[in-house]
C-alpha cells in the first residue's frame, strides 16, 4: 500500500488527509501546531507534531517511505515551504504537491522540482464563478487548456431521452463518461432511503431521468452550451 504524507494540517491539509484516509490510504499528518495534530489524530493513520524543516524528524516520521507528499503550508510560510521541499527531495520523495498563493511562490517551488503546484483559493474562486455563470454545471475539473471533465445536471429538455437520441458528440462535441442517479429505496422497516447509483458505462440506450447528473468530457464552451440547452 502506498503511504502519503500531508504537511500542514490547516483547512486544506486536513481536508486532503481525511479524504485520503477515508478512501483507504495510509496517511501521515504533520504539523508544528499540537492543537491541529490533536484534532486530526483520530482521522488519519498517524498524526505527528514536528517541524517540517527538521530532516531527522521527517525521516523518523516515515516521510522518506512516502510515494506522495502534499505540502499544504500557509501562504505566509514560503521560507519553510522552500526548506521542506529541499529536504523532501533529499529524502527521495517521488512526488511533491505544494500549495502556493502567488505566481512568484509557484515559480520558486517549481524550480525546486515540485511535481505540481496548486492554487486552492484561486481554483475555488474560478469554480464559484463557473457555477454562477452555469448553474447546471455542478463540478468542472480542467484536464487540459480549454477542456474539462464536468458534472452537469441533465437539462429539462433532455429528460426522457436516450444518449443515442441526444447525439452528444455530433451536436455538442461531448463524450458521456457516466450517469449518476439518486433513487428512493423502501427498507424492510418502512424507512425510505435515498440511494445513489452510478452507471460508468452508459450506452446509446441509456435513458436520462429528471435529477440525473451526467459526467461529460469536452471543450469548456461545449459543456456550457449543453448545460444551457
Fill in the keyword field for this structure:
single chain; 229 residues; alpha/beta; Rossmann fold; Alpha-Beta Plaits; 2 domains; six-stranded parallel sheet; five-stranded antiparallel sheet; 9 helices; 11 strands; 34% helix
Q: Write down the overall geometry.
A: globular
Q: Output the radius of gyration.
A: 22 Å
How many E-type strands?
11
SS-derived structural category: alpha/beta
> Helix count?
9
Q: Could you explain the architecture of this structure?
A:
- This protein is of the alpha/beta class.
- It has two domains: 116 residues, Rossmann fold, CATH 3.40.50; 93 residues, 2-Layer Sandwich (Alpha-Beta Plaits), CATH 3.30.70.1450.
- Helix content is 34%, strand content 31%.
- The strands form two sheets. Strands 3-2-1-4-5-6 form a six-stranded parallel β-sheet, sandwiched between helices. A five-stranded antiparallel β-sheet has the order 7-8-11-9-10.
- The longest helix is centred in the middle third of the chain and has 14 residues.
- The model has no long low-confidence stretch (mean pLDDT 89).
